[in-house]
Structures are given as structure tokens and as C-alpha cells.
TrEMBL record:
Protein name (record): Xanthine-guanine phosphoribosyltransferase
Location within or outside the cell: Cell membrane
Coiled coil: none
Molecular function (Gene Ontology), one example: glycosyltransferase activity
Residues annotated for Mg(2+) binding in this entry: D101
Keywords: Cell membrane, Glycosyltransferase, Magnesium, Membrane, Metal-binding, Purine salvage, Transferase
UniProt organism field: Maritalea porphyrae
């Protein structure tokens, strides 16, 4: 069980695009990569941006679910990785890139790492508990912070600092 995540780090679409591009710049010197394996669903968005920047056209997904909002439950693999992509990871002259939006406890990333032992693992954000699991990331966020992604958010009324007028 990790620390309560009582701080918040809201991320806008603009910022997420900028941070994903920054990750692509870092990855540019680590490749070339023959395929991306994105961890759905959160990894789909940075994977699209990185694939565009680095000219990668083979995109595979692995579907892992464990969170119900902030509560982490049992990890379930809902879709595994195709054999031709596993073969790429095993080949000496090929390189596979794993992409996700973040690592938090590292449980999800560790499961995918075990499937692709030779791959380069990249996330946009990383929390300290799992920072060492990823090969490349852009921004470290403290363990007691919850990252709010733009696809999970909606615009809503914010009460003024002085409190309600009624
Ligand atoms: O390091 P961990 O503690 O395992 O947490 C990180 C994982 O949690 C989130 O996915 P989630 O399971 O919420 O599914 P989603 O990507 O479909 O939103 C996030 O996208 C990472 O994949
Ligand atoms: O901080 C987070 N934000 C969104 N999804 C998550 N899944 C694990 N940690 C997080
Ligand atoms: Mg995810």
C-alpha cells in the first residue's frame, strides 16, 4: 500500500503534448526503435505522439488494469503482446520501446518489463517508488501526489478562495 496521494498535479493537453515531445527528444538518441508497445489505456496518448516524432509505425498494445480511480486492486492482463513483437524483443538487432503515461508503484510496469526483458521502458511521469524501473522519463512527481490527466477531466465551477457567498 502506498502513501495517501493528497496533493494534486493537474496536466493540461498542451502540457501533456509538450512533455511527451520532450520524452521523444530524449528517446531519439536511444533508438532507433522497431516497435512501440503501449500500456493501455494511459500509454496510448504518449505513444501516438512519440510514434509521430520518431517515425515508428509498428504499434502494439498490452492491456493491464488494476486501478479503480485511486484504489489499486489485483493486476489483470486483459490483452497480451503478439508473438511477432515478442520475437522482435528477443532478436539481437531489434529494439522495442515500452510506453506508458506514468509509473506510480511500478506494479504495472514491472509486469510488462517481465514480458519484454530487453525493451527500453519510457514514461512521461515517474514517482520515486518506480523511478528506477524506467529507462527514460521527463518529470518526477512525489509519491503523495495524484496526477490528473486531461482525458480524465472536465471543466467545472471552482468556488472562490473566500468561500461561498450564500
Ligand atoms: O505503477 P502503478 O502503480 O502500477 O500505476 C501506473 C499505472 O496506472 C495507470 O493505469 P490504470 O491501471 O489506471 O489504467 P488505465 O491506463 O487504463 O487508466 C497508469 O496509466 C499506469 O499504467
Ligand atoms: O497519479 C496517478 N494519476 C492517474 N492515474 C494513476 N494511476 C496510478 N497513479 C496515477
Ligand atoms: Mg495505465
Amino acid at each position: 500500500m502506498s502513501a495517501p496521494q493528497n496533493k494534486s498535479f493537474p496536466v493540461s493537453w498542451d502540457q501533456f503534448h509538450r512533455d511527451s515531445r520532450a520524452l521523444a527528444w530524449r528517446l531519439n538518441s536511444e533508438g532507433p526503435f522497431d516497435a512501440i508497445v503501449c500500456i493501455t489505456r494511459g500509454g496510448l496518448v504518449p505513444a501516438a505522439i512519440i510514434a509521430r516524432e520518431l517515425g515508428i509505425r509498428v504499434i502494439e498494445s498490452v492491456s493491464i488494469s488494476s486501478y479503480e480511480y485511486k484504489d489499486q486492486g489485483k493486476l489483470q492482463v486483459l490483452k497480451s503482446i503478439a508473438d511477432d513483437i515478442l520475437a522482435l524483443d528477443a532478436a539481437d538487432d531489434k529494439k522495442v520501446l515500452i510506453v506508458d503515461d506514468l509509473v506510480d508503484t511500478g506494479k504495472t510496469g514491472r509486469a510488462v518489463r517481465a514480458m519484454l526483458p530487453n525493451a527500453h521502458f519510457a514514461t512521461v511521469y515517474a514517482k520515486p517508488l518506480a523511478r528506477d524501473l524506467v529507462n527514460s522519463f521527463v518529470t518526477e512527481v512525489s509519491q503523495d501526489t495524484w496526477i490528473y490527466f486531461p482525458w480524465d477531466m472536465d471543466v467545472s465551477y471552482a468556488p472562490p478562495i473566500h468561500g461561498s457567498d450564500d
